[in-house]
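Case study 2.
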Amino acid sequence: MLLPSIFGESLLDDWMDLGDVERKLYGRHAANVMKTDVHEHDEGYELDIDLPGFKKDEIKLSLDNGYLLVNAAKSLDKDKKNIKGKIIRQERYAGSMQRSFYVGDTLTETDIKAKFEDGVLKLSIPKKEPEKLPETKTIAIEG
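Prediction:
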């Protein structure tokens, strides 16, 4: 027997089917990809990374050889003592994901600002010019 839903289909149907286009771009579990908006300003870049359902302590940022690495990992609650009945479908994400962005090797971890609010990781990355090499000075030769 199929259970009705507010979407007019069965609760057990895959009403959130992502379609062939997103499957080709991101794989079968496209919902597990860090969706990111990148905005450029004169002074730098602003990144908004969607991480719904994650907590701040489940997210790790690091800087390695000019790459900003964003890691997020979570597990489902293992305590099932208070759950009545059996789970017939579980769609919440458990696992880890990672994304990297090349930000250049002139930035340090203190240059990048991060804020996590309402499931969105907001990063502020300044534009920093590479250090200029010293000008070549010529030396006059007498004689």
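The chain has a mean pLDDT of 77.
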